[in-house]
Amino acid sequence: MRAHLEDGASPSSSDSPEPQRKLNQCFPAAHLRLLAAVMLAAALPLCVPGAPLEVAPTDLPQGEASGEEEEDKRISDPPRDSNIIETWERVLKSTESHQQEFDDEFQGNVKYDLLDKDKPRSFPAKCPNCTFSKEACLQSLAHGMLVYTVLLKHVDREYHNSSIVAAVKAGIPQLITQIKAKMRNADGVAAPTSSEEQQLLKELDRPDLFYRKMMAHRILKSIHIFLVDGKRSYQKWMSKKHPVRMHGTQIRNL
Fold it and tell me: How far apart are CA 80 and CA 211, in angstroms?
């Protein structure tokens, strides 16, 4: 045994683990040291004290605001009434030529002011009763326009090709919808029933052609005045200061 060691023989296989020998054969010591240095350098930025952590930003689709931004916008922005005013002015504009068409039809033989006389009681009030509250104002306006929607059927019979009638018939229903959208109780304003509608039109129907035509012109002039006064009353209420609320709590008026 001693002679065997002196001759440089290696100890038994149990003294040198087989995996270590294979690792040394595949990777020389120099390569292992280089690999260890590279791995250590890569890990250093993660271990530097106080190094800022990069957080990937959360991208939203273009033009889309976050939930908090939308909530702030709803709280701070007062209601916008540009759409309803645009509709109102468009309908009003279509009635502005009525006096000229009336004068052209009767060639000055009938005064335009004559239309202010002998109005049926079924005509809505010239100036809607808007002195009590905004809700009462909106209901009065919507109800008056619903009645005029029925009365326009008489005008359409007498002047079927009138551009004024066509524009008003198209615009008033849209205006009614926009007004009702601003009510707390839109269901409280209903259109006339079929029996009420028949009664309204029966009051206007006479054998006298001149009477029927004059009544049609009375309706158009009354609609114009109603829209002018109604727009003024509507803007009076909607121009009042809007309270600024934050998370359900009223803070102050602007």
Answer: 44
- What is the C-alpha separation between 224 and 126, in angstroms, rounded? 9
Q: Name every residue whose Cβ is closer than 8 Å to that of residue 84 and which is 6 or more positions away in sequence.
A: 175, 178, 179, 182, 234
Listing DSSP states for 223-251 in one string gives: HHHHHHHHHHHHHHHHTSPPEEEETTEEE
Question: What does the alpha-carbon distance between residue 63 and residue 25 come to, in Å, rounded to a whole number?
Answer: 62
Q: Cα(117)–Cα(103) distance, rounded to whole angstroms? A: 17
Angle at 183 between CA 182 and CA 184, to 5 degrees: 125
> What pLDDT, in 10s, does the model give residues 80-135?
566 899 999 999 999 999 999 999 999 989 999 999 988 888 899 766 656 678 88
Residues 196, 202: Cα–Cα separation, whole Å: 10
CA distances from 59 to 21, 30, 63, 209 (A): 53, 47, 11, 71
